[in-house]
Specification:
Elements lengths: L11 H22 L14 E9 L5 E11 L5 E2 L3 E7 L2 E2 L9 H6 L5 E5 L7 E2 L4 E6 L9 E8 L5 E8 L1
Amino acid sequence: MHRPQSDDGDSQIQGVVILVAVTFILALLLLLMLHIPLWSAGEAPEIFAITELKHLNEDGAMNYDSRITIMHIGTAVYRNDELRAEIFVNDQDSGAIIRTMNAHLFIKTFHLGVQRLWGVGSTGYYWYPGSPVYLDMNDNTFRPGDRIRLDVYHKDHGGLISRSVKTA
């Protein structure tokens, strides 16, 4: 007996492949939107880079003033109030508590080791690429020759999103 051929265009294999590809692309876009890091634990890219370490006061006199300039060298825009930072000197915790990178909220928070936080990246709600933030640490936090490490964390998921290291 001869069966007539069906004109139905049903192909389960092609449908499954397309569905898996679309799901994978949507998951990748979601990860990028949420800034979830895709690198291994303990390693982070340098998004917020230490560009300058100063030891001089406003008059140019050496007083080990311990000032840090941080530049956003990444491409994504971050809400500065969703970021927190830790400063290490020669791989030892400096004791500085920086619970927000938003200058207006920083004033109201409990903070230790940092006298002031200011700069274009800390005003408003967002830290845009190319914008600096300045930290005036307590005097003598670091000295010339010390290795300074800045770790920036995202508050929502607690993950390390940026690490920068520079010698004073």
